[in-house]
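Ticket 4471: requesting a sanity check on a complex prediction with iron/sulfur cluster. Repro inputs:
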Amino acid sequence: MKLRSMEMNITRREILRFVGGSALGILLTPVPWKALDDSAIWTQNWPWIPEPVRGESSYKLTSCTLCSASCGLRARCIGNQPVSLSGISAHPLNSGALCSFGIIAHHLRYHPARLSRPCRISGKAGASGSTAMAFDELLLEVAAAINDASASSQTVAIVDGRPGRTASHLFQQFAAGLPNGKYITAGESSLEILGSMFEKPPGPLAYDLDNSKMILSFGVPLLDRWGTPARTARYLQKKSEGKQRIIQVETLQSRTAGMADRWIPIRPGTEAAFALGIAHVILKDKLFRDASKDIAEFETMIAAYPPSAVAEICGVSQDFIRDTAREFSANRPSVAVIDGSANSRHALAAVMALNILVGNVGRKGGVVVHREIPSPVALSKNKMSPISTLDAIPDHSIRAMLIDESLSGSSLPDGLLQKKLTGNGILVSLSPFVTERPFCTQYVIPSPVFLESLAELTGQADRESSSLSLSAPLVPEPAGMVDPIQFIQRLGSAAGVMNIDSGTTEELLKKRMTAIYSEKRGSIFNASNGQTSELKGLTSPDELWNVLFAGGCWMDSPETVRSLPAVRLTSVSTADRIKNIPPESNQLLLLPCAEDVIYRNSEISPLMSKVGQESGLRPSGCKVYLQTATGDALGLTDGCRVMLQTKKGSMQAEVRLDPSMMPDVAAAYSALNQQNIISLCEMNQDASLQPTPVKIQKV
Ligand code: SF4
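Returned structure tokens:
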């Protein structure tokens, strides 16, 4: 493609509009959906749309980096330009399917809000107050802040949304080289919580959903956007054949809730109570198979959660709690999963306790132990910092926070970032786009987008075994882009942190290939011929590299069953934390919700965005969803405007009445910036949102 006009006349207002859009996408979702969405609309509307070149087609194979599903894909190219993307049919991770975002992922590089130079954005001034800088100049300023932090015993934190990469291990080395360095993964996953309940670390844990007979899901979008479209199709197929049951416990009637075998709507923020109610039944009816030393102590601890009390807290019938407990225990192998990004640490622990109680841990179809992917960096003489979580770091103690946003991944709410920074704290972000964070001085370093650079993909933790793929650069990256490995090595040398492994990205990834090859385990999918064979059949690490570079994938062999360390159920410690927060008579509970929950009936492709907006099917502005009866009781009609008022602030929204909503709940969505709604909510120390009472008044 070439641009119709290189003399583009883009107004500042247009750029700012897109800056806001990309910020929303990167902050709130596991992939830059909004940026893609913008690109899709933009390619239909804007004067500088890329014009496809004409010529012969050729095909190149690679892997999608937009989320951890790591789908294999085929790019149709004209000359060197990818013009369409499709799945690789025999690929073990996606079986030929791409999601609607992957299909147009090649548009991302044309997004007009892409950053071309490093910049400093001073607090409160917004993107319009940004100052372009040379990369070296930026490094000097950031290094000075890091040295200042070290001299004054303040913390320097590095946040990683995609742990397990070679770059992640270098981040851990960087943090270990500072007196108060912390390596943080964005959001603690349920499996990390489960790992922490063992007396000794059991190794990396993973859900084995494919081999499970029953999945008890607490808000996990299994049939919406969890994994790949092929994975979703597989769940639906198994469900229709009666081979797998899905019970969805979730406040809103999401797409997964709508298609599950049973949907149990509970009040927002009561997931922990519901899980403990199930645990109570499992123990009382002697349905457990676990012999934890502290099981009697655990039973005493959760004595306050009989089905009668839990039904009251969650707003459900006691029968649902009893039936779910019996089904979960009887249909083994079963597994309980919970959305780590939306729930408190206590809720994650309570749900993981269910897996322990019925003996699902260390069992095929339950929670399995993955082997570590071999990594020479992890074994090098340079020490690595252990993984920390942001909630464990005292408020107002981080002088410099570095965030790798070059690949989309888990993210942290702005409110939490702000709370952890010192008054003069800075935020340093590696990202293709500017994300406005007006609460501090921010440095942004431009990184390449999908198809422009070599990236390493460590796969999803919901398979029987781990995997590794590469995403090869198919087009040249623009000048001045910085990848995560270059970033941390250059920053380390500017700040005098010398204990970071050297080598280019390609050299370090090739070393990892050599380490994997020398283990001689697992299998390898070759995308060029669609064949899967044993790794030990390859003749050299170079051959492994070449296969992965051309859209292939290495899959580890499953861990052979081994005895796990003892586990302590009482580390759940949720019993005294669960509060029933009934709203006052004129209040509801505010629940920020994602756009695709509202669409409910299907995932809307960004290709359809323009049609969706023009037809009014797609929500715009801020909407609040209420049960029809609740709206009637408050004298509100569909489409009227209201003020949402919490202790933290207020904002206007348009009412949508929906019979599927729970009576006490106000689910709010903002097309412009979901952070506005999140800022109205009370936040727990671990960055999860508390159910927040909200007053709704007509304006
Ligand atoms: S599901 Fe697959 S195609 Fe879609 S964004 Fe994730 S990796 Fe890309």
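Notes from triage: The chain has a mean pLDDT of 83. Leaving this open until the requester confirms.
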